[in-house]
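Problem: given the chain below (292 residues), write out its structure.
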Amino acid sequence: MNSMTGFGAACVPFRGASLRVEISGINRKQLECVINLPRPWAELEPLIRDFTTRRVSRGRVNIGVTPEAAGNGKDSLRLDEGKLASLHERLQQIEKTTGIAPQVTVDALLRLGILSDAVEDSTAPERVWTEFLLPALQQAFDQFLQMRREEGEHLCTDLLARVNTLCVLREKMLKLAAQVPLHYREALMRRLKEQGLTPEEPDERLVKELALFADKCDVSEEMTRLDSHLRQFEKICRSADVGGRPLDFLCQEIFRELNTTGSKANSAELAQLVVTAKTELEKIREQVQNVE
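Solution.
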C-alpha cells in the first residue's frame, strides 16, 4: 500500500552549476501531473509526464525543474542585446507616432526572451533530458516513492486496526440481533398479561406476529455481506497492488450494510452499535482518501 503524500528532491551538476528537481504529491481521486519547466525546455514536458504516469497511478504530483547558478548568481542572467536593440527601435517608433512613451517592465523582457537564465540558455533540450534531467528525475522519484511507501505502511497499520474494530462490533451486532425477537416476544407476552390475556395454547395470530417481526428485523444477510466486505478490505490492505479505488468502493458498501442494519435494528442497543461502527467507518474513509 502506498500513500499519495510524498516528497523527493535531487540535484545534478549542470554546466558548472546545478539542476534541481523537486517532486511533491498530495491526494486526488485521479492522477494529476503539474510540471514547471524553464521556457526553453517546454518540449520536455511530455517526456516527464510519461515518466511520471509509469510510476504513479493516483494523486496530484507537482514536479519543478530549476537550473541553479553557481556562486552568488552574478552571471546567471543573459541579455540578448540584438533583441533589446530591436525592441528599443520599435518603442521609439511608437512614441514618435502616438506621442506616448511606452513603459517596459522586467516581466515583459523575460516574456520576450530578451532577459533569460544563462544557465539554461545554450543547452539543447534533448541533451538536457538524457544527460541531466532524467538522472535527476530518477533520484528524486526514488525518494518520493520511498516516502509514499513508508506513509502507506503507517496507513495500512491504522486501517487494519480500525477494520478489526468493525469486526468486533459486527460480532456484537450478531449477538444482539439474535436476541431482538426474543425480547419482542417477552415484551408482547408481558403486555398481554397486563391486559388479562394469558393464552395457554400457542395462539396462531401470536405466532404469526412473532414470525413477521423476526423476519422484519433479521439482519443475517447484511451481517454476511459486511463480513465479506471487511475480509476483502483486509486482503487489499495486505496486498502490494494499488488499492485506493477498491477500498473507497468497499467503504461505500460497508456503509450501505450498516445503514440497512440500523433501519432494521428495533433495538436501542443495536442502533448504538451501528452508530459507533459508522463513526469508525468515517475515520477509515478519511484515511482511504490518502491511499494510492
